[in-house]
Amino acid sequence: MSYVQMNQVSKAFQEQKVLDSIDMQIKKGELVTLLGPSGCGKSTLLRILSGLTALDSGTIHIDDKDVTPIEPKDREIGMVFQSYALFPNLTVTDNIAFGLEMKKIPRDDIRRAVGEMIELTGLQGKERAFPRELSGGQQQRVALARSLVTKPKVLLLDEPLSALDAQIRKNLQQQLRSIQRELNMTTVLVTHDQEEAMAVSDHIYIMNAGHIAQHGAPHDIYTQPRNEFVARFIGSYNVWSAEALGRIAPQVEHIGSKLYAIRPETFCAQPLEGGLAVTGTVSSVTMLGNITRMELNVQGQHVVVDQIHRASDWANVGDSTTVYLHPKDVIPLHDATA
Amino acid sequence: MKRFNSMLYITVIPLFIFVALFMFVPLFTMISGSFQPDGGGAFTLTQYTEIFTNPYYLKAFENSILISLLSSLIGIAAAVFATYAITRFPKHIQERVLVITNLTSNFAGIPLAFAFIVLLGNSGLFTLLFRQFGIDMSAAFDLYSWSGLTVIYVYFQLPLAIMLLYPMYYAIQDNWKEAASLLGASPFQFWRRIGLPILLPGIAGTFSILFANAMGAYASAYALTGSNYNLVPVRIGALVSGDIFARPELGSALGVLLGLTLLAAMLVNEWLTRKVRRDLL
Amino acid sequence: MTRLTRSLPMVAFAAVLIYLFIPVIATLLYSLATSWNKTILPEGLTLQWFGELFRDTRFIQAFGRSLLLSSAATIAAVVVIVPATFAISLYAPKLERWVQTLVMLTYAVPGVIMAVGLIRAYSGKGFSMIIIVFGAYVIGMLPFMYQGTRNSLRAVQAGSLMEAAELLGASRMKAFIRVIVPNIMPGILVSALLSFSILFGEFVLINILVGGRFETMQLYLYAKLNTSGHIASAITVTYFILMAILSAWIVKLTGRTSKPNKEPSAAVAEAAIPTTKAMMSKEAS
Predict the structure, then answer these.
(1) What is chain A's mean pLDDT, rounded?
(2) Which long-range contacts (CB under 8 A, 24 or more apart) does B34-38 make?
(3) B180 touching A (Cβ < 8 Å)
(4) Who among B129, B220, B259 is closest to C109 (CB)?
């Protein structure tokens, strides 16, 4: 039995359906990510789980208890907002202590719990600072400490890292994940950054237009996208129609799908055993750090090829070039639509 | 190299001339005049000693400060709750309510005094209406008394207070309320611990604007009874514009003291705010 | 307890609304009433009072004087303050702190103090006191014109616009007149309308400095207070309708200029507009 369970959750804002019969299961101690482009409904789903937004239909269970009719403050849920929502008139210590004070916990216990949290999140020395005196990363950690200190059953993170610099974001991802593992905290993370989702999640739900497009472990999703939306969103896959595939690579057996996805990095510059050759004109060459991205025009079909960057000279724009592809890397997409 | 900016000079000099002629020169003449005897002359403090020894002028200050404090307190207390109620309406209704509130802020000075005369004056609608029911209102309430003037002052404080407070409620982010509720706080606990402390500097600032507004108010009291109310602005007006009893130097000294009162109120307000809100330091 | 805390705001709101509206409605009804002495509602309705008012040349003249004085002062305030605000905020940002202090000063000094100073400085020295009132009006509008202009300049990113225009070969003056002015026009218009409406209701300065020699609408209303209640109501209502028209115009202008960007920051900027308005209506004094 899963720890958090959402059944047939639907929500509409002014006739506009934002969530359409969402089902979701989360195991205890798992970090689950809701991933999708902005407007896909992921933040709404998170707010429905917290109780801040009411659902139109469906049920939510947490720890075998139906929380659908329960007020947010009684759901035992912690939440870190995108804007952090730190109380500007309270110090770091008072912000973290707020939830415990509301529960009328004895003063000494509060002091001890807050001290532990400050240590866990590495905020020593900032206890008496006010939010506006902290950096973005520090504010983020105060927000995390504030929501963890009450020992919630589920921790919700609404794009908690999106306002931070790339470097700090990477560090905090690691820190977030290690704290989450240490406390075995059931966590739901909302993000639109697929790298971030891949890096920290046990399980990913990819959402599009109020539906779940696919869910599974990061590796499974990356290697086996089920539809065009996931293929494009998760790894800039090449998506070809059956007709195009037949034209470019007639050797590949048709499996009956309408669309096929090919990861750009599965192409190879050297001939492969059993591989098929794809020849086209180079339309652009772009350096992406340690990867070189080459775009080819193969009989009118646009093909993206990624190769580990090597000093050896590659094709120039306008050249004709051939790359090789193993038929097993052509992934049939099952659902034509998202 | 810096270009000589003729545009800056062409535009700023006229403004500076206006400011000098109609702000600095009058303020300076008023201050210097306040240190002269009646009819002008050498430096003296007689005007100030007269104000501080004459119970009539001391009473004027007492009256002005009391009615300003009272009307500002009533105004701000009502506005804090009313404005909160406004922010709970849907957006388009909020806008309409604000426009209407704003419109009533034009109802000030002479028209306002007149409207209250129509309602509560000696032959005002309510006065006559109550008389119909056999109630003699004049025993309990007289428009031309201090209670009547307070009613009018509160009226012109309300729209001002609402307009000033309204944007401040928008500084209270919805996320704070949500965060507090997830942490187990009731709405009342949220307002007591978070909302009000954050609003407090704004409320205090609004209060001092209301106070200054009432301290300087002249038209309403003047419209009700001419120069009969013993209020500082009314006294000043009478001292400088009366043809026979004009004592502009004494009026100037009252003006300087009125200005100092406003300044003191502002400083006290700032000092208190900083004491209460450590995080603003 | 919780029920009380929940209903208190609505109760306060309703009370405030009633408090603000009863005088307005009473004045309106009184101006339309044939006779209204012994009944809850007027005995009959008539436009007689308005008819009498509009046939009174003294009223027409007073209205005309108010119109003339307020619009002249408003136009002068635009001409004197807008270019200076532009030049200071772009080319002399160091001066801004001083200007802000000045703005605070002009806002904080009550009209009655200004009246004392102006009388002592200029009365009986051969100056026309109407011109003095005019000058004081122009400076009195400094806070609103300055703030309005500055907000508009920031909204259109005047600095970048000027740089772009100058790089394309326009002189500063030309760039200001051809590029900046058309862009901040809606903002200037709003500030001007606000200034006009506040000056139209001004009483303190004109009463103390000039008095009956230049009877404006406010002075006329004051003179009529104790003679005819119905006529005085009709004047008040006329004044109120004029203010309502100006408000509607302002709302229309601000609504149009703030529609393209529906960002939260735009909402904050919008909220600042009624505030400025509120700050102006300091007891209409």
Answers:
(1) 87
(2) B34/B249, B34/B252, B34/B253, B34/B255, B34/B256, B36/B249, B37/B249, B38/B247, B38/B249, B38/B250
(3) yes
(4) B259
Residue B78 is predicted with a pLDDT of 95
Q: Which helix (H) or strand (E) holds C21?
A: helix C2-32
The beta strand positions in C108-217, using DSSP E, are: none
The predicted-structure confidence for A116-127, as pLDDT tens digits, reads as follows: 999 998 899 999
Question: Structural domain tally of chain C?
Answer: 1
| Interface membership of B187 toward A (CB under 8 Å) | no
Distance CA B185, CA B182 (A): 7
Splitting chain C (285 residues) into consecutive groups of 10 residues, what average pLDDT does each group show? Answer: 70 92 89 74 80 90 94 96 93 89 87 91 87 94 92 90 87 88 91 92 91 88 83 90 89 62 36 41 44
- CATH number at C103 reads 1.10.3720.10
Structural domains present in chain A: 2-229 (3.40.50.300), 235-333 (2.40.50.100)
Q: What angle do CA C185, C190, C194 make, to 5 degrees?
A: 145
Looking at the partner chain, which of B23, B82, B114 has a beta carbon nearest the beta carbon of C232? B114
Residue C244 forms part of a structural domain: yes
What is the chain C residue with the closest CA to B107? C240
Q: Cβ separation of B240 and C116 shorter than 8 Å? A: yes
Dist CA C184 CA C147 (whole Å): 13
Most confident of A2-6, A170-174, B37-41, B73-77: B73-77
What does each C-alpha distance from A214 to A21, A38, B159 come to in angstroms?
A: 14, 17, 55
The CA distance from A254 to A245, in Å, is 9
Has residue A263 got a pLDDT over 70? Answer: yes
Q: Test C19 with B155 for CB contact under 8 angstroms.
A: yes
CB contact B15 to C (< 8 Å): yes
> Which tops the pLDDT comparison, B4 or A250?
A250
- Strand locations in B134-252 (E): none
For residues B222-238, average pLDDT: 88
User: For the purposes of burial, counting CB atoms within 10 Å of the CB of A334, is it exposed (0-12), middle (13-18) or buried (19 or more)?
Assistant: middle
Nearest by CB to residue B194, choosing from A72, A87, A130, is A87
Question: Counting Cβ atoms within 10 Å, is residue B205 exposed (0-12), middle (13-18) or buried (19+)?
Answer: middle
Domain that holds residue C274: 21-284
Label the pairing between strands A77-80 and A4-13. unpaired
Answer whether B278 sits within 8 Å of A52, measured CB to CB. Answer: no
CB contact under 8 A, A98 and B183: yes
For residue B247, give the nearest of B60, B36, B62 by alpha carbon: B36
Helix (H) or strand (E) holding A26: strand A16-26
Phi, psi of A230 (to 5 degrees): -65, -45
Q: Do residue B194 and residue A73 have CB atoms under 8 angstroms apart?
A: no
B205 touches chain C (CB under 8 A): no
Q: How confident is the model at residue B104 (pLDDT cuts 50, 70, 90)?
A: confident
Rg over alpha carbons for chain A, rounded to the nearest Å, is 24
Tell me how far apart the alpha carbons of residues C247 and C196 are, in angstroms, rounded to a whole number: 11
CA of B257 to nearest chain C CA: how many angstroms apart?
10
Q: Is the dihedral of CA A47, A53, A59, A65 positive or negative?
A: positive
Interface contact B238, partner C, CB < 8 A: no
Euclidean distance between CA atoms A314 and A306, whole angstroms = 12
Residue C268 has what pLDDT? 36
Residue C12 in domain: no
Least confident window among A258-267, B71-80, B81-90, C153-162: A258-267
The phi and psi torsions of A58 (rounded to 5 degrees) equal 110, 175
Whether C9 is covered by a domain: the verdict is no
Report if residue C14 sits inside a domain: no
Query: What is residue A314's predicted lDDT score, i.e. its pLDDT?
Result: 67
